[in-house]
């Protein structure tokens, strides 16, 4: 089965945008104390710098589901039986979770003692692939319907009161609700991406993999209609202010801030309205670039073909950039704070939002030859089995 370039382009674009958020998190001066989406304290520039990156995680998760469908189809057509193909999804899911707990978390904190453990999008995708390895034996349509039920219905679980039993609280967090666990003075555990809400997005992406088997012009039309339908649904539900997000929008003194309040949806965990607006925009873009071949699409494809490699390497580069920033601003290694949930950045260190964009662009350019080399290496060495997982 021929590789769908539109998936690589879309994935590559959101990976590039994602790096902006992480550079802002670690290098921007107010990032340690200011919530970029708190309209009482933020600015439109900071808000939109954060908001545009909302597109990244749902796109990454959705397209992981789509790629899983296409991978299963490819393996079935090349002689693998269905059980072997689904076992690959299981193994890939396990590998992703192990990478999240080790290589990725070390990139977050640079702490050999692992005093912090943060579970994010790689855990959600890995856990989703493990569950998908079971569900994939059912028709894709029913897998997609299951995903829709989860995405449209999981906000009802906001009504469930918080658990007091530690084991129940942990289990609920891993599955449904973002939570923080200060286990001890030297260890903290954060579940930022509970599995089930993100699983819904992955399952919908899996079902949409069927569209990618259709001719380009036919699928472009269907994907565009789906994207516009999601955006229209977002506007209608958000306007009603009844269901779909725990944070209602309110009217502010200016029209701009009222608009920002309207689009200020909840990511942790991903609300229905968050999923509708981000996936709607993603599908419109996917439709627009499907079948296109130009300098921009070829550039994005380089990143999109090696998303896990990009994800891991970019975190290390961003964190090293933060340390370099602190040293250039006169701090020493002894000044870098340590401890649970501490990136190691001195409280007074930081750069302006303008310089955040400069550093981000520089890192993206630096990643290009690395991703291009690794992409070629994977193609040239199909006999190396572990390359399929990174």
In total, how many domains does the architecture comprise?
Answer: 1
What integer value in Å does the Rg equal?
Answer: 21 Å
Strand content: under 5%
Biggest sheet, open or closed, and with what strands and sense? 3 strands, mixed
The SSE string, one letter per element, is HHHHEHHHEEHHHHHHH
- Helical residue percent band: 55-70%
Low-confidence stretches: none
Overall number of strands: 3
Shape: globular
How much is the average pLDDT?
93
Q: Classify the secondary structure makeup into a structural class.
A: mainly alpha
Number of helices: 14
End-to-end span in angstroms? 21 Å
Describe this structure in words.
The chain has 390 residues and is mainly alpha-helical. The protein has one domain (5-389). The chain is 63% helix and 4% strand. It is built from 14 helices and three strands. The chain has a three-stranded mixed beta sheet with strand order 1-3-2. Strand 2 and strand 3 form a beta hairpin. Helix 1 packs antiparallel against helix 3 (56-77), helix 1 packs across helix 11 (272-289) and helix 1 (5-27) packs across helix 12. The longest helix has 28 residues, at 82-109. The radius of gyration is 21 Å and the shape is globular. The model has no long low-confidence stretch (mean pLDDT 93).
